[in-house]
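Posted in: Protein Modeling Q&A

I'm a second-year student putting together a small comparison for a lab meeting, and my supervisor asked me to include a predicted structure for Transcriptional regulator NanR. I've never done this before, so apologies if this is the wrong subforum. The sequence is pasted below exactly as I got it from our records. If anyone can share the structure token output, I'd also love a short note on what stands out.
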Amino acid sequence: MSAAQPTPSPSGGLLQREVIEQLGKQIVTGRWPGGTVLRMDELADQLDVSRSVIREAMSALSGNGLVQSRKHRGTVVQDPSLWNAFAPDVIAWRLDDPAQRDEQFRSLVELRTAVEPQAARLAAERIDSDRAAEMIRLAARMVESGSMGKVDEFVEADVVFHRLLLQSSGNPLFASLEQILNEILAGKYRLGLMPIIPDPQASHRHLELATAIASGDAPTAVTACLDIVLQSAEELGNSSPQPRG
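Accepted answer (user: helix_wrangler)
Welcome! Here is the predicted structure, written out as tokens:
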């Protein structure tokens, strides 16, 4: 297969992260299918960056399973089945691609459904008083900011709330999923898939969840958490992109 031809940079120079973003998105969206050979010299010339920047970008993409260095061939794009599906970058790039967005959200919702209610159960059994108070504070902030239409503040509190939920489970494997959860929650906002005014029921459900965890009521915590995840999935199924001011 012939070497890939990237889109030239209009700025004449890209920062390291921008190079990773551009190359990663072109792989994930299928512009460069599995087996494509990526020539570092050509990429460096066309993106107007040094070869060392391209090399570092390839190292980052290799860490996500998107490319592999092969003897006598150079850097080759991997088949999607070999990508790290849990890598936050891969998740974000798939969410950014309209052709993959629905399937990616479906997979992420299924992951949340399997993990978060169990994290809520464990948190109700293991959380300390400081974290319990912080979860209640964050839920109350969601109620307030949501009612005032401050969606950015609502999302910020939501992300921290669910991160704290995973951490409070006391299970390091659950806690390691926090970056994935960040991509789900922040991605909905970034892509304009949240209502302009958050559903008050969702906000109050978070407060119910936090209160149940703080009081050690595991069954109520599990039910409330599952309701939150399923409501979020329903919102995604019914949503169309909303403009952000």
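A couple of things worth pointing out for your meeting: The chain has eleven helices and three strands. Confidence is low (pLDDT under 50) at residues 7-13, 239-245.
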